[in-house]
Amino acid sequence: MKISAVNESTVLVVFADSVSPETADLIAQSVIVINQQPDLFVVDMVPSYTSILLTYDLTRIELRTFMSRLNQCLQQDNQETQLSSSMVIELPVYYGPEVSLDAEEISRHTGLSFDEIVSIHSSQEYRVYAIGFAPGFAYLGNTDPRIHIPRKSTPRLKVPAGSLAIAEQQTAIYPKSSPGGWQVIGRTPVNLIDFNRDNLTVFEMGAKVTFTPISREEYLEMGGELPEASLVEEDDKA
User: Fold this and answer.
1) Which parts of the sequence belong to the Carboxyltransferase domain (predicted)?
2) Which of 86, 145, 156, 183 could cross-link with 102 by S-S, CB 3.0 to 4.6 Å?
3) Other CB atoms within 10 Å distance of the CB of residue 217
């Protein structure tokens, strides 16, 4: 662990050189411990894959004292701290053709059928390694090497809310409609934004995440939305 000053009111704590479940656990534990230290006067905390960026109130504590207290609390034995890694978040996902926008591209790149891709993707347990880009956007890893695929060369201007996507060794869900360059394979009907939480999302650093495939009917019953053309087609069949 290395603590270094970024500026007069911000420090960076680096826990490791590479991403791993162990590092995710350590960061998740450290976030809890830091939140339990009122005398650190932390005003903002940004955890990421291997580090935590901390901003503190410099009118109440000076840099050297802050770094000393921070190092002391992080060096203590905090085994009794309840880790968010014990949390398992289960999310339903519809992997149907109306919402799996990049199914053909992913199949072409991997050489697998889309059914195989869905089976591989939904059988994996993922970890929340970072939360960022947008409120509720959680970077989850690691995906099975068989379905690794680069980001799109030209990002979409608008990715529908709830879209589940993959890129490189990661997977993520777009909580709100936004531009994005990840490869979209499905969509969840679950709203991932929670304004009652400090981090504005159902995700927690270090938590485990699983995806459960659901049918088109289940997706719609749970409040999921489809492109208008698909809904018109469904009405015609009825």
Assistant:
1) 1-203
2) 183
3) 10
